[in-house]
């Protein structure tokens, strides 16, 4: 029977980053993935993900975001691939909206570079936008986008270069603690490890009954639209954006490679009872929902539909992550139901997960993400 220091279940954003960090420390580590790294059945696909330092969700995320930036650049240096592109991030919405006010609070608290702008200033500076006159915004120049599929593939490739074993197309059937460690039963045999990181994304509830009652899976739809004025939506002219109206919120990206302007609603989508229910079934109602925000704030992007894709948000009740050792067995590390805003942190969370699996105290503060908060 194969034996390892750590087994990582799931090689999406968090699992691949954990595998990378453990392998770089010279640990005997195996990664198990039921599909292929960079697949389109979960939460980490679709060409791009936002990275930003100022964080409207809560200021305590900012130190993690700073460390994440450093770790993404480290992966770029090792791989020779461009994974992070800085375009700046624009957040805008109605007066007093949580997106702008929350990011402004985080920017001031952590002394981040930022600009507060009115709608007229934004529309003049970035012709991609035609915001309602009463809106305000915040521009953070250090933000931009990540390439998720490439990032995951490079984490895995770099881990393998440092001795990690990777098994794809392998389904985990059970995690079974025993005296000396953890047995992981798969459809291709059983392995043993001193500890296990469960980074199974929307499938994490299958292996963590203590967590499953607190999770909701939602179907989210991404759309790509041909811009009516292409030059305005080139990455050098249009920042990544988050927009909030009184009844919706969306996020999106400039036209990165001629694929169109990518936009998606950030509001809660249809609830899925199981992760396997997700299908690539974007329809006219999904398209109409996305177009409402484009028509309101970015009419020049509201051109012909190029493509739609679906993904899953694995949500906690408070929309924060779970990064913690299991209360059932501390040798099992639970890794991040991310509520739709986690990918940017994968590089640093991989570092945290490696520490937890090896019995160390992480250098990064993760007190906000403890599982016992659901008991109160």
Blueprint (SSEs and pairs):
Elements (H helix, E strand, L loop, with lengths): L1 E8 L3 H12 L4 E4 L16 E3 L10 H18 L4 E3 L2 E5 L4 H12 L5 E4 H7 L10 E5 L3 E3 L1 H14 L3 E3 L4 E7 L2 E6 L2 E10 L17 E10 L14 E5 L4 E5 L7 E5 L5 E2 L11 H14 L7 E11 L7 E3 L6 E4 L10 H12 L19
Parallel strand pairs: 1-2, 1-12, 2-9, 5-14, 12-20
Antiparallel strand pairs: 3-8, 4-8, 5-7, 6-7, 10-11, 11-12, 13-16, 13-17, 13-18, 14-15, 15-16, 19-20
Helix pairs in contact: 1-5, 1-7, 2-7
GO molecular function, one term: sarcosine oxidase activity
Protein name: N-methyltryptophan oxidase
Cofactor: FAD
What does this structure look like?
- By secondary structure, the chain is of the alpha+beta class.
- The protein folds into two domains: 2-45 and 149-212 and 318-375, FAD/NAD(P)-binding domain, CATH 3.50.50; 87-143 and 216-315, D-Amino Acid Oxidase, subunit A, domain 2 (D-Amino Acid Oxidase, Chain A, domain 2), CATH 3.30.9.10.
- 24% of the residues lie in helices and 28% in strands.
- It contains seven helices and 20 strands.
- It has helices at residues 13-24, 62-79, 98-109, 119-125, 148-161, 284-297, 346-357, and strands spanning 2-9, 29-32, 49-51, 84-86, 89-93, 115-118, 136-140, 144-146, 165-167, 172-178, 181-186, 189-198, 216-225, 240-244, 249-253, 261-265, 271-272, 305-315, 323-325, 332-335.
- A hairpin with a 2-residue loop joins strand 11 and strand 12 (189-198).
- The longest helix has 18 residues, at 62-79.
């Amino acid at each position: 029977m194969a034996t390892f220091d750590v087994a990582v279940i799931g090689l999406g954003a968090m699992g691949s980053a954990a595998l990378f960090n453990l392998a770089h420390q010279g640990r005997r580590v195996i990664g198990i993935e039921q599909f292929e790294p960079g697949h389109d059945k979960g939460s980490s696909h679709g060409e791009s993900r936002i990275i930003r330092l100022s964080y409207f969700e809560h200021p305590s995320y900012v130190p993690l975001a700073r460390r994440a930036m450093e770790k993404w650049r480290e992966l770029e240096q090792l791989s020779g691939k461009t994974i992070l592109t800085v375009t700046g991030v624009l957040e805008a919405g109605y007066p007093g909206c949580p997106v702008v006010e929350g990011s402004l609070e985080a920017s001031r608290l952590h002394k981040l570079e930022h600009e507060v702008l009115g709608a007229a200033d934004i529309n003049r500076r970035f012709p991609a936008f035609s915001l309602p006159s009463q809106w305000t915004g915040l521009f953070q120049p250090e933000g931009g986008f990540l390439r998720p599929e490439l990032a995951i593939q490079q984490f895995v490739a770099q881990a393998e270069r440092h001795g990690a074993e990777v098994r794809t197309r392998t389904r985990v059937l059970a995690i079974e603690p025993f005296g000396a460690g953890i047995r992981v039963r798969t459809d291709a045999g059983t392995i043993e490890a001193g500890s296990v990181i469960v980074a199974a994304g929307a499938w994490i509830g299958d292996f963590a009954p203590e967590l499953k009652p607190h999770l909701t899976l939602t179907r989210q739809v991404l759309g790509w639209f041909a811009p009516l004025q292409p030059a305005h939506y080139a990455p050098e002219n249009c920042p990544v954006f988050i927009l909030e109206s009184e009844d919706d919120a969306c996020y999106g990206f400039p036209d990165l490679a001629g694929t169109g302007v990518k936009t998606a609603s950030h509001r809660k989508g249809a609830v899925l009872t199981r992760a396997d229910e997700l299908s690539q079934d974007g329809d006219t109602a999904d398209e109409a929902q996305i177009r409402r925000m484009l028509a309101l704030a970015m009419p020049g992007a509201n051109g012909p539909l190029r493509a739609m894709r679906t993904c899953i948000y694995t949500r906690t009740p408070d929309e924060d992550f779970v990064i913690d050792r299991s209360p059932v067995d501390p040798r099992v590390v639970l890794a991040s139901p991310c509520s739709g805003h986690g990918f940017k942190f994968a590089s640093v969370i991989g570092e945290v997960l490696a520490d937890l699996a090896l019995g160390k105290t992480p250098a990064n503060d993760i007190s906000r993400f403890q599982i016992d908060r659901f008991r109160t």
